[in-house]
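Format is chain and fold; as here:
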Amino acid sequence: MSRRLTVILLVLLVLVGAMSLKTAVAAHDGGSFTIAVGGAPQPPPLPDVGGAPQPPPIMDYSAGASVVNR
């Protein structure tokens, strides 16, 4: 139990130290921050390849697998 508590205490100390460092760095910052202005770039246009391929004909399996014309 003592080893487990020691590990937990060490982890907590590391986290507290990291947060303190973050606060100290933020306090000494000039107050400026980066803002992304504008939207995302436009994606390239899709190539004109004539559309989607034609689906295969529908098979009517109840009539002996003949092709149904619709």
Q: What stands out?
A: The beta strands are 59-60, 66-67. The mean pLDDT is 77. The radius of gyration is 33 Å.
